[in-house]
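Quick one, C-alpha cells below:
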C-alpha cells in the first residue's frame, strides 16, 4: 500500500519514490493508481424491445458473488439455512380421508420431491432458485406437466420441476409470458396456471402443431422493490457502494504491489532540474548497489543551490486506515444481509456468547430465515401441491437450522407429556417420527399411568418381600400419618380406604404437604374397589423409591 507523506514543496520540485524492493518511480506513476470515484453498475440489457427490462442488470448483480467474499458468504449461508437443511411433509387436515389414502398421498408427494427431475431432488432445485433470489432478487422454477398417467394418486400430475437461470429471463412486454434468451437462442414460457397453449418458439397463443413445441409454465419468486412491478431487487443493494469500495481497494493493492512493492523512501529534488545523470544514479543505487551493500555511499555532484532530500515513508498509518475501512464496509455488508458475523464464517475476539448468542440466533431465524422459508413454502404448497397436484391434506415444510438446545426441548416435551397436554404420538409427529399403536393415550405425572386407569399393584407372593422391618415401619408411619388409622390390617380400615371422602383426603393431604418420609413426594394412587393406597416417595439421596400399599390381605 502507498503512503504519500505531506511535505512543503516549492514549484518545480520533483518527487520520486523508492520502494522496499529497490524500485524507483515518479509522482506521476503514483497518480495512475488513485482510486476513481464510485460508478453506477447499471447496464442496459440486450433482450430487445419485446421485453420489460429490470431496473438493474441481473447478471451484474449476480457477478458480485464472484467479487466480494463477505457478500458471497452471506448469500450462500442464507441459502443453506433457508432451503438447504432438509424438508418434511406435515399433515394439516385429513378432510375425512381414510388413513390408507393419506399415506398414499404422502408417499406419492415424497417420491416426487425426492426426484423432481431426472437429476435432482427438490432441495437441489430450490437452492439454485434461492441463490439467485438472494443474488439478484429473482428466482424462477419451470414446471413440466405430464399427461396424468404418472401417478394413480396425484390427480393433476406435474411431471418435473427445474430451475431456470434468472439472469436469462425477462417479462414479455405483453405481460402474460416470459422470454428466456441465451445468445441468439430464445424460448417462451407461460405463467403458471395459464390454461392457454403457448408456442415456445414463437410466443404465440393458440394451437400448436407438435406437442414438443408447447411451452412450459414458469413460476417467479421475487423480493419486493418499489422500482419495479415485474422484477425484484435483493435487500443487499443498499451496500453496493461499500462492496464497490472493497473491490477497488483490492484492485489497488494488487496492482501497486505487483508493479512497485511497498514505498520506503521519497526522494525530493530541490533547486535544480532532474537530469538523466541524477535519475540514473538514484535508480542504480537503490535497485542494484544498495541490495549488495546496504552501507554503500552514494555520491552526487550538485549545482549551486541544488538539494536532494531522502525521506523515509511510514506505511503503518495507511495500513491502519485500510484495515478500518475494510472492517467498516464488511460490517455494512453484514448489516444489509442481516446475517450474524459468525454465520458468515467471520470470527472475532470478544464476540458475544451464552444466552446473548442464542438470542441473536433466534432473531436471525425469526426475522431472516423463517420469512424466506414461508415464501418458498407457499410456492410449493399453494401452487405445486394444492393447485398442481390437487392435494390439501399435506403441506411441505423446510427444516430449520438447529439453534435450539435439544436437551431443553426434550424437557419441554417431557413436561407436556406428564401433565397430559401431549400424547407420545403427538410428540413423535412433531419430531417427524412414525406413530405407534397405543401412543395416542394422554398421561399424567408420576409413573406415567394412563389417565383414567388404576395402578394395579400385584400381590407379592414372596414372603421375603415383607420381612424387612424398616420398610414395614415406613408403611406403618405412612398409614398412621395419612389415613389416621391405628391398625391397618382390618376390614374396617379397608372399607375406610374405599370411602370416597377418605380417598379425596389422602390425595389432598399428600399434594398439599408435598413430602414423604423425609423425601420428595411424587404420586399417590388410591385403588378403585380394591382397598389399595399406594404412596410413592423418593428419598433425599435420590436413589430409593418407596411404595407403601394397603390390602385386605397382607403376607408376612
Amino acid at each position: 500500500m502507498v503512503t504519500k507523506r505531506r511535505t512543503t514543496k516549492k514549484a518545480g520540485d520533483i518527487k520520486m519514490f523508492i520502494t522496499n524492493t529497490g524500485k524507483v518511480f515518479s509522482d506521476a506513476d503514483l497518480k495512475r493508481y488513485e482510486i476513481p470515484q464510485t460508478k453506477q453498475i447499471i447496464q442496459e440489457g440486450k433482450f430487445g424491445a419485446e421485453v420489460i427490462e429490470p431496473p438493474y442488470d441481473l447478471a451484474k448483480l449476480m457477478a458480485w458473488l464472484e467479487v466480494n467474499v463477505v457478500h458471497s458468504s452471506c448469500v450462500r449461508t442464507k441459502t443453506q439455512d433457508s432451503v438447504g437443511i432438509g424438508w418434511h411433509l406435515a399433515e394439516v387436515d385429513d378432510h375425512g380421508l381414510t388413513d390408507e389414502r393419506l399415506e398414499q398421498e404422502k408417499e406419492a408427494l415424497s417420491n416426487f420431491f425426492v426426484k423432481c427431475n431426472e437429476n435432482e431432488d427438490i432441495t437441489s432445485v430450490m437452492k439454485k432458485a434461492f441463490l439467485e433470489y438472494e443474488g439478484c432478487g429473482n428466482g424462477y422454477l419451470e414446471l413440466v406437466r405430464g399427461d396424468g398417467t404418472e401417478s394413480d394418486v396425484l390427480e393433476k400430475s406435474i411431471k418435473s420441476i427445474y430451475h431456470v437461470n434468472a439472469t436469462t429471463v425477462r417479462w414479455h412486454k405483453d405481460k402474460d409470458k416470459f422470454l428466456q434468451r441465451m445468445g441468439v437462442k430464445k424460448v417462451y414460457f407461460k405463467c403458471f396456471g395459464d390454461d392457454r397453449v403457448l408456442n415456445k418458439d414463437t410466443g404465440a397463443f393458440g394451437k400448436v402443431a407438435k406437442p414438443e413445441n408447447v411451452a412450459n409454465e414458469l413460476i417467479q419468486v421475487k423480493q419486493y422493490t418499489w422500482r419495479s412491478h415485474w422484477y425484484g431487487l435483493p435487500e443487499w443493494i443498499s451496500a453496493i457502494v461499500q462492496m464497490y469500495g472493497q473491490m477497488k481497494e483490492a484492485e489497488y493493492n494488487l496492482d501497486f504491489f505487483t508493479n512497485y512493492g511497498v514505498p520506503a523512501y521519497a526522494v525530493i529534488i530541490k533547486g535544480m532540474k532532474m537530469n538523466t545523470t541524477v535519475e540514473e544514479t538514484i535508480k542504480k543505487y537503490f535497485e542494484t548497489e544498495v541490495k549488495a551493500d546496504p552501507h554503500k555511499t552514494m555520491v552526487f555532484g550538485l549545482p549551486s543551490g541544488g538539494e536532494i532530500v531522502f525521506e523515509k515513508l511510514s506505511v503503518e498509518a495507511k495500513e491502519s486506515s485500510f484495515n478500518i475501512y475494510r472492517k467498516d464496509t464488511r460490517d455494512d455488508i453484514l448489516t444489509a444481509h442481516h446475517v450474524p458475523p459468525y454465520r458468515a464464517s467471520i470470527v472475532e475476539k470478544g464476540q458475544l456468547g451464552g444466552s446473548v448468542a442464542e438470542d441473536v440466533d433466534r432473531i436471525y431465524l425469526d426475522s431472516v430465515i423463517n420469512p424466506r422459508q414461508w415464501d418458498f413454502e407457499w410456492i410449493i404448497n399453494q401452487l405445486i401441491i394444492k393447485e398442481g397436484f390437487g392435494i390439501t391434506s399435506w403441506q411441505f415444510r423446510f427444516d430449520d437450522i438447529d439453534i435450539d438446545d435439544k436437551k431443553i426441548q426434550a424437557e419441554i416435551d417431557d413436561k407436556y407429556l406428564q401433565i397430559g397436554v401431549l400424547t407420545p404420538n403427538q410428540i413423535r409427529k412433531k419430531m417427524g417420527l412414525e406413530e405407534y399403536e397405543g401412543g395416542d393415550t394422554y398421561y399424567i405425572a408420576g409413573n406415567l399411568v394412563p389417565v383414567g386407569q388404576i395402578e394395579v399393584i400385584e400381590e407379592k407372593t414372596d414372603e421375603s418381600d415383607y420381612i424387612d422391618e424398616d420398610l414395614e415401619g415406613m408403611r406403618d408411619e405412612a398409614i398412621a400419618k395419612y389415613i389416621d388409622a391405628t391398625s391397618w390390617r382390618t376390614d374396617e380400615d379397608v372399607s375406610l380406604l374405599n370411602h370416597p371422602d377418605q380417598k379425596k383426603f389422602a390425595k389432598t393431604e399428600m399434594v398439599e404437604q408435598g413430602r414423604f418420609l423425609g423425601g420428595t413426594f411424587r404420586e399417590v394412587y388410591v385403588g378403585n374397589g380394591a382397598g389399595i393406597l399406594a404412596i410413592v416417595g423418593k428419598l433425599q439421596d435420590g436413589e430409593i423409591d418407596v411404595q407403601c400399599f394397603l390390602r385386605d390381605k397382607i403376607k408376612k
